[in-house]
Automatic annotation (TrEMBL):
This is Translation elongation factor EF1B beta/delta subunit guanine nucleotide exchange domain-containing protein. It comes from Paramecium tetraurelia. InterPro entries: eEF-1beta-like_sf, EF1B_bsu/dsu, EF1B_bsu/dsu_GNE, Transl_elong_EF1B/ribsomal_bS6. Residues 74-98 have a biased composition (Basic and acidic residues). GO terms for biological process: translational elongation. Belongs to the EF-1-beta/EF-1-delta family. Residues 140-230 form the Translation elongation factor EF1B beta/delta subunit guanine nucleotide exchange domain. It comes from the Eukaryota. One of its GO terms (cellular component) is eukaryotic translation elongation factor 1 complex. Residues 71-108 are annotated as: Disordered. Keywords: Elongation factor, Protein biosynthesis. Pfam families: EF1_GNE. GO terms for molecular function: guanyl-nucleotide exchange factor activity; translation elongation factor activity.
């Protein structure tokens, strides 16, 4: 894979003209590295592909982008130490009778110490209960998809269709990506490229796509570009 650098955005822009991300179909370590190095939105006129790519990545939270970077290398196991040689147990000398007598023993329990011990035990019990009842993280998926319309050369219709999708389809568990791209297909025709984050337990991609294709007078097809678990 090409080595990308912010000092050569022309190369990055050319690569993005034929790819969704610097790592191919799915975002990865190169996308995170260049995104963080840019320190701001690149000029649209000079680097249009980098501009739209930057806005698309901005629609994801820093926590999501952090997951695209490679995991840290596993630590090497420390060399095993040789087990110490066993020493033969020393013979205990028989106790004298007076050793069994505790002249200063006290059978009374300190009430304050007992109170603190009970409070600590109760605190640990509550912490364990809270940990057990802690809700599990919600499973989510990033979906990038493309919409093709019959009047694919009509820019106004492309934009109004994308706006209609985001304003009309808003079930619980779906969040639309901020940026929408209009990528050229051929001879001036374009397709709409959009992104959404769905909660797996609430939303099916087919349900969303069925609502879009129901506008059969305008929409010709809807296809998935990529999917990634968050």
């Amino acid at each position: 894979m090409a080595q990308f650098a912010v000092e050569n955005l022309a190369q990055v822009n050319e690569f993005l003209s034929n790819n969704n991300y610097l790592n191919g179909d799915l975002p990865g370590a190169d996308d995170v590295r260049i995104f963080n190095a840019l320190k701001g939105v690149p000029p649209k006129d000079q680097f249009p592909e980098v501009y739209f790519w930057y806005l698309l990545l901005s629609s994801f939270t820093p926590a999501v982008r952090a997951q695209w970077a490679p995991a840290a290398a596993p630590k090497k196991d420390a060399p095993k130490k040789e087990a110490p040689k066993k020493e033969e147990p020393k013979k205990e000398e028989p106790k004298k009778a007076e050793d069994d007598v505790d002249l200063f023993g006290d059978d009374d329990v300190d009430p304050e110490a007992e109170k603190k011990a009970k409070a600590l035990a109760e605190q640990k019990k509550q912490e364990a209960l809270a940990k057990k009842n802690k809700p599990k993280p919600v499973a989510k998926t990033i979906v990038i998809f493309e919409v093709k319309i019959f009047e694919a050369t009509d820019q106004a219709l492309l934009e109004s269709t994308a706006k209609k999708v985001k304003e009309t389809i808003n079930p619980d568990g779906l969040t639309w990506g901020k940026e929408v791209k209009f990528e050229e297909i051929a001879y001036g025709a374009k397709k709409i490229v959009m992104s959404m984050i769905i909660e797996d337990d609430k939303i099916l991609t087919d349900d969303v796509f069925d609502q879009i294709t129901a506008w059969e007078d305008d929409v010709s097809s809807v296809d998935i570009v990529s999917m990634q678990k968050v």
